[in-house]
Queue: 2 jobs
Job 1
Amino acid sequence: MIIGLLMIVAYQNPFYANFIASMLFMAGLAEAYNIIGGFAGQLSLGHSAFFGVGAYVSVIMFVRLGILPAIGCIAGMFAASLLGAGIGYVTLRLKGPFFSLATIAFAEVLRILAINLRSVTGGSVGIMIPLKTGFVNLMFKERISYALVAGGYALLVLFISYILRSSRMGYYLLAIREDQDAAESVGINSPAWKVLAAIISAALTGLGGVLYAYWILFIEPYSEFSFEVSVNMALITMIGGMGTVYGPFFGALMLVPLQEILRGLLGKYTPGLHMLVYAVLLIMVVSFLPDGIAGLARRKLMFGKFREILENVNTKRE
Amino acid sequence: MEYLMNILQLTISGLMVGGIYGLTSIGLTLVWGVAGVVNFAHGEFLMVAMYLSYLFFHYMGLDPLASIFLVAPILFMLGASSQRIVIQPILKAPHYNQAFATVGLSLFLQNLALIIWAGNFRSVKVSYATSVLPIGPIILSIPKVIGFLVASFITGLLYWFLRATYLGKAIRATAQDTYGAALAGIDVKRIYILSFGIGAACAGIAGALIIPTYYVFPTVGQYFVLIAFVVVVLGGMASLTSAFLGGLLIGVVESMSGFFLGSAYKELVYFLLFIFVLWLKPTGILFSSAKSSWGSSSGGNSHKIIE
Amino acid sequence: MLLKVTNLSKKFGGLEALKRINLYLTRGEIVGVLGPNGAGKTTLFNVICGFYPPDEGEVVFDNKCITGKKPWEIAHLGIGRTFQLVKALGSMTVLENVMVGTLLRGNLRQARNDALTCLEIVGLVDRAHFLANSLNIVDRKRLELARALGTKPDLLLLDECMAGLNPSEIHSTLGIIRDINHRGTSILLIEHIIWAVANIAHRVVILDYGEKIADGTVKDVFEDPRVVAAYIGEGTNTCWKSRTLS
C-alpha cells in the first residue's frame, strides 16, 4: 500500500522532484529518529550528530581521499553507528529531559569541532562537493533520480521500522519505554537493547546524512549539526506520531509541504513570517494532538470490532 | 607571579559574567522545578529583554540599568502569558509535549524578532561600556561588575522572597508536591503562572544587564539558553544558591578555557563538562530526587527545588 | 532448597533497611513475608531480584549464587516478581504486556501462545486485546501477575498483590496463586492481609525494622509474643483465626 503511494508520488516532473526528494528524505530521517525517540522512548534532541557525522565522514573521504561515495557511505554509516553506540552508552542512565539535554550537548560538541578543525572539515565555510555523476558516486544528473534515491531511503527505513516493531526488539523497546523496571524484571537487558536501538537509529540517520549531502552538494557545520536540524526531526516524528510505525512517515509528508507552502505564500512579505506562522501551527498541533496525527487516526478508527478486524484478533492457538 | 595574576584576573572576570549566568539559570530552574516545564524558550525571553533594553536606550535614552524597572515587569507579563496561553492548555499532556510547545514558542519569538528588527546585530553603547576599575593589578570591567552586583542582589531578593513571603512558600510547596500543595489550598495554576513570570523576569533582568557588553540578534537566545541548561544541571535544581553558584562556576570555566584554549573551544569545555557530570550523576550534581522523567504529569512528582 | 538468603544487609544512607536477614525456601513452598510497614520487606525483594546489590550477605537460588546479578539475569535464572505499585505497560495491549514476559522463553509465536495460557490462568483472556491503560486496578494486578508468570519462573515474588482488593477478589486471587503453586512454582509473598496469608502460606517470616523476628508455620508465628507485640497487637489476635478457611 505504501509502495503504491510512493510510486505515484515519485513519478513527477523535475520541478516537483526536488520537493518530493526533500520530503522523502525527511520522512526517512523521521522514521530513523523514531526508533530511539518513539520505540525506545528516549527523546534525543541531538540526532543531527548522526546526520552530520555520516555526511562529513563520507564527504571528507571523497573530497580529500578520493574514495568513492558509495563506499564512503558505508564508512559514514559505520561512523554514525559508533557514535550512536558511544552516545547510547554514556546516556544510559539518563532519563527524560536530562537525556535530551545530553544529546543536545553531544551535537553541539560536534558542531564546534566541525567549525574548528578547519584543515579536515573546511571550518565554517564547509566543503563543496564536485559533481561527478554516476551510481557509485551517489550523484545524478536528473533531479528525478534524487527523488528516487530519497524514496528508496524512506522505504528502506520504513521497512526496517516495520520489521523492528513486530519483532522481539520492538516489544522489548516498548516495554523499556513504558516501564524500565518492569521490563528488567522479566528478563530484558535494558542497557543492551537501548544501545542497540541507538546504533540502528544512528546508522540509518547517518545514511540519510550521506545521501542528502550528495544531493545538496555542500556541507557545513550549521546545516549538519545544528539544534534546528535535530528539532526538526523530533518535531516531525512527534507530530506524525511518536512510536508508531507509519506516523513519522506521514508526519513528514504533511509538514514538509506545509513549510514549503507557507514559505511560498508568506516568504515574500518579510523574512521570518512563514516560520512565525509555522511556529504557531506547531504549538497548536502539539497542544491539540498529543499523540500526533497517527494517534488521532488510531483513536478515530480503532474501536472494538473494527480494531479486531484490522488486527486479526485471534485468541486461538496457532 | 604574573601567571598567578593572570589566573586571578580570569577568575574574577569569569565570576562577574557568571553572576548573570546564574541569574538566567535561576529563572530556568524556577520554571522547571515548579511547573515541570523545560522551557526551551527561556533564551528567547532573554533576547526579547535585550531588544527592549535596546529600544528604551535608543528612543528614550534610558540606561539599560534603569530600563530594568520596565523590562522586568514586561518580561514577567510575557512569561505569565506564555504559561497561560501555551502551557496551561496542555498541563495534562506528557511533559515532553510541553517542552516541544516551548520549542514552538521559541521559534515564534525568534521569528517575531526577525520580522521586527531583521537579522542585524544591534548594540547599546553606554558611556561606561569600556570603563574599567583597576583594583591593584586586576582590571574590572565596570558594566560586568554592575551586572554581577545586580544579579547577586536579585538572587538575594528572590531567596528572601521564597523563604519569607507566603507566595514564596507556596511556590516552594508546589515545587515539592503539587497535589499536597493543592490540598493545602494553594491555587497551583496561579503558582505556575507566577513562577513562569518570575522566571521570565529573571531572564529579562539578565538581558538588560548583558546588553552593554553583548550584541543582540534574533538567535542570541540559543547561546544563552544552552549555558543556562548546563548551569542547571551542574548547579542543580536543589536550591537557588546552588544554581547561582553553578552560574559562577561556568563563568569561570568559560573564562579560563577561553584563555587557554581560544574562544573557539571554550564552549566545548563546558559541554564536555556537562556530559561528564551527567555521566557521573545522572540527575546532575546537587539533585536529591528530581523530576527526571518525561512521564505524565500525574506521576513522578517527588522533587526538591529549594530546601 | 530453592532459595537461600544468608546474612543479607542493606543500608540506605543512615537507614539500615535490612539487618543480617536469613531466609530459606524449599521447592513447592508458599512462604509469606509479613511485618509492619517500613520493615524492609520490599527492600528484601528488591535485593533478591537484583535491583539493589546488598551491602553484605548472599543470595543463593537453585544452587547458584545470584548476589549482585542484574535483574534480567535473575529473571533468566527463574525468579519472577510483581511490584507493589503495579507497573502495567500502559500503551500496549494486555496480550502484548504478557508477551513481553513470555518472549523470554521462546520466539514470537510461542510467546503469544504462552501469553494466552498465562492470561487464562489469571482470568484475563477475554480482554486480551484491550489496552492495559483501560483496565481497573484489580485487573492490572492480574496482568502484573500474568506477566511475571510468563517468564516461567521457578520462584515468584509477589509484592502485596492483594492490597486494596475486596474479600471476594482476594479469594479468587488466592485461588489463582494456589493454581500457580500446583503447577510447580514456589511463591514468596509480601502481604498485610493476615487471614489471606494464613489461608495459603505454608510458612511465614516476620520482619520488623529490618530484622527477622519469626519464622515458622502460621500458627506458631502468630502466637509468638514478639510478633504480637510488634505486628498483630493484643485483642486482634483471634480475628485472623475466624476468617481462616481450609
Note: Residues 85-152 of chain C form one domain.
Job 2
Amino acid sequence: MTDWSQAVSQFRSDAKTTATVSGNRGLQIEEPLLFEQNAPGRTGVDLPEPPAVRSRLGGITREGPIGLPGLAEPQVVRHYTRLSQKNYAIDTGLYPLGSCTMKHNPRLNERLARLAGFADVHPLQPISTVQGALELMDTLAHWLKTLTGMPAVALSPGAGAHGELCGIMCIRAALEARGEKRTRVLVPESAHGTNPATAAACGFAVDSIPATEAGRVDLAALRAKLGPDVAALMLTNPNTCGLFEREIREIADAVHGVGAFFYCDGANFNAIVGRVRPADLGIDAMHINLHKTFSTPHGGGGPGSGPVVLAESLAAFAPIPWVVHGAKGLELVERAQGSARGSIGRLKGNHGQMGMFVRALAFMMSHGSDGLRQVAEDAVLNANYLLARLKDELTPAFPGTCMHEVLFDDHFLKDTGVSTLDFAKAMIDEGYHPMTMYFPLVVHGALLMEPTESESRGSLDAFIAVVRALAKRAKSGDAESFHAAPRFAPRRRLDETLAARKPVLRWQPPRSDRQAAD
Amino acid sequence: MRYLPLTTADRQAMLAAIGVSSIDALFADVPEAARLDGFVDLPRAQGELEVERALGAMAAKNLVAGAVPSFIGAGVYRHHVPASVDHLIQRGEFLTSYTPYQPEVAQGTLQMLFEFQTQIALLTGMEVANASMYDGASACAEAVMMANRVTQRKKAILSGGLHPHYREATRTHARFVGFQAKLAEPDPEAREDLASEIDGATSCVVVQSPGVFGQVRDYSALAEACHKAGALLIVVVNEAVSLGAVRSPGAMGADIVAGEGQSLGNALNFGGPHLGLFATRERYVRQMPGRLVGETLDAEGRRGWVLTLSTREQHIRREKATSNICTNSGLCALAASIHLALLGEAGFTRLAALNHAKAVALADRLAAVPGVSLVNDTFFNEFTLRLPKPAAGVVERLARKKILAGVPASRLYPGKPALKNLLLVAATETTTETDMAAFATALAQVLA
C-alpha cells in the first residue's frame, strides 16, 4: 500500500491548488443527500385534503413518522440534475465497457414506450382490451425467432441472468420429462459469473472447461468432461474474449451426442445478428439481452429484459404466460395446463418487460433486416479497427482478428508500476469511461474494449490516440500520474475496503439529532 | 441508416487499416454452413415516421386505463406520477449509463441508490434495503431462498393471502432450486392461522400486507411464532403506497420484506418493467441477493459511494453467489426515489390517506348495489366484492361500456370455481366521484 499512501499525499498537495471555498469545482457541484435538505411538512406534490372517513384499516396503522425528507419541486429537480451531472453515460461519450454493449439509445424508442396505449395499460385488463399489446409481443417474438432461427421464445424473463435461469430450468424440466436426473453443467472459465451462479442455483454442480491457447473452448477437454451425467453446456458465443468459437458445431454435436443440451449466453448476439442464426450453430436455448443487442437503455443498472429462444425440444417447457393465436384474436395462456401443461410455470409477475419490448421492437424495425446485419458488421469493424491501431502499443491477448470486442492483457504494463486498474482510472481523466477490467478471468490483467456500432471513425481515432499516449506514458516511467488518477472526476479513488469493512448502507440522522429525538 | 455513423468510405479505409479486403474476412471463423448470405426474412429499415406509425397503430388498439374509469389493481396500481419524475429519469446521464462499476464517474447513480435504499428501509421499517430486484414476484422467490440460507431449512409456507403470481413464481423456483413451497388455500376472508403450520423444518412463512384480497392484518403474533420456531417471517408488500398508512412490516417483526414498488413513480406498462423491493435486518445483510451501495471516502477524504459487499454476488463468487441476479431495475428505482422525494413525509402520508378514503367511499357505494356484498372487514385501497354471478363475465360486459371494473378472482385463480364470483376492486387518488358513480350505475345495470 506504499504506492497508495504516496498517491494520497500527492492528491493532498494537488488538492490545495484546486481547493475552492464551496468544495464545488466549476460545473461539478457538491450535492447533499435528500435527507440533509429536509424541512418538516414541506412537499413537492400538492394533494387535496383527504375527506374524513371511518378508517377500515382495523387499527393496524403506522405509528410514528416514517422519516422521509420534505423538499419542494425546485429542490428535487435541482438535486437530481446535479446528481446526473456526476455520471458518465453513452450520451456523453464513448463507453467501451466490453461485454456490456453500451450503444446509442434512440429517443424514438423512449417516445413510443411512453405512448398511453402501451404505458397506461394494466396487465390484468380483459384480453379483449389489450389486443395491440399482445400484437406487439407477438411481433417481437416473430423478429426474435426469425433472427435466431429458433421456433419458440419465452418473453417473460426480467434480464439476461433471469433468462439464463429460465433456460436452465427448461433444460432440467426436459430432462425430467425424459426421466433423467443429470447433475453437472459445464461452463468455460471465461464465462460471465451469472452462468455458474445460474447453474448452481438450479441445483447443478458446475464443472469448468479450460480454454485453448487461442482463447477458445478446448474441444478435447470438453469431450473428456462430457458424460451421461452432464445436463448442459453453457457457452457464450462470440465468447468473452471477443472470439467466435470456430468449432461450435463440433461442440454442439459432442454435447448432443451425450444427450445434453447446448445453452448459449446470448450477451454477445450483437456481434452476429443478421449474419448468423444461432439455430444453425446447434444451439438449444439462448437468452437475448434486449438492452445489449437491441439497445434498450441500461438505466444505470436496469431494467433489462431477457427473452429466451428455445429449440423444439424445449419449447413445451417455456414459462407462462404464452401469447397464442386463438379464435378471437390473440390470447394469453396464464395457466400451466392444456397445451401449456409442460410449462415450468411462472418466473415473475405479469407478462414480461413490456416497456423494453416496445423499445427493442422499435430498434429492430428502424434497422430492418439490412440495418441489423450492418449493426453486426460495424460493431465488428469498429472493434477490429481498435485492435489494428492499438496492437503495437498494447498487447492483444490472442492473435488474429476479433469479433465485436477486443481483449488485451497487461503485458504491455509489465515492470511499469502501472496496473490495469491504474490505466483504467487514467482513462477517466481523459474523459472516457474505462474499458472492462480484469474480465474475463482467463487473461492476466484483462482490458476488454467494446466500441459498438454507434461510434464514428473520428470518435474511435480520438480514443485510440488517448489509449496510445497513455500506454507510452506508462512505459516512460511516469507511474505516479497513473496512481493519482483520476484527478478530474467528481471523486478520486474511493476506499472500497472501508465500505465493505464497516458497511454504511443507508443514511442515519446525526447522532445528536437521534438523541434529541429520544 | 440514421443510427450508424460509419460511411462507406470510412468502412473501406478501416478495412484497409485492419489489412483485410472485405468485412466477410472478419467473420471467417463462422462455420461455412452457418453463414447467411442474404438478409433474414424481415422488413427492411424504416424511418422514424414509419416506425412511429406502425407501433402507434398497435398502441391505438388497446384500451388506455387512464382514459376510462379504472379500478384494476391486484399488485399493479395506477397512481398519478408527477411530471418532473419522467423528465428527470430521461436525463441521458441516468438513462444511458451502465451499472456503476466505476464509482468515480457514477456518483450520480450511486448517491441516488443510497438514497433509495434509505427510503425503502424507512418505508418498510427495516434496517437495510438493496438497490432493487426485477419485480415483486421474483423478489418474493429470492426472499424465500435467502430464508432457506439463513435457517439452513428448506420448507416455506406461503399464505393464501399472497398474490398468486408471487406464489407461482416461488413454486417454480422451489421445483428447480430444490425446496418445498407449501401453498395455503386462497383466503379471501383472512381467516387462516399459519402459526399452527410451522414446524422444525420451516424456514419461513410468507404473508402479504395488505393481502391480495385487500385484507389488512397484524402479523406480530405470527412473527413471534416464527421466531420461536427458528423460522423467518417474510412480509410481501405490493402496494407501496399502503406503507404511508398501514403498520410497517418492520414494526410487525418481519425479517425480510419483498415488495413491488411500481406504485411509486412507475407506470402500469402492461406489467413491466416494474420495481422489486428487498429489505431485511442488518444481521442478514451478507445473505442478501442483489446490489448494495455503501458510503465511503475518496482519497481526498470526501464522502462518496460505491457498490459494496460484492463478495455475495455472481461476478465475484460465481457458483457460490447468493443469487444469479445482475441487472436489476435501476431506472425504475430512480423513478420511485424521485416520486418519494417529491412527496416527502407530508405528501406520502397524505397520498396514503387519500387512497384509503377513496377506497372507503367506493366500497360503501358498490356494496349498496343490489346483490353485491363486501367480503373484507379491513382494507387499504383495494377490496373484494362478492357478486351474484361470475365476475369475469361482468367485467367483460363493463369493459364494453368502457369501465375497467377490477380483476375477477377467476383470472388469478383459474382452478378455483369457489372464487369465481369474487371481484377485486381498487381505488387510488386518481379515482373521481364521477368514476365511482359510473361504476356503481353500470354494475347495477349489468347485474339487473
Note: The radius of gyration of chain B is 25 Å.
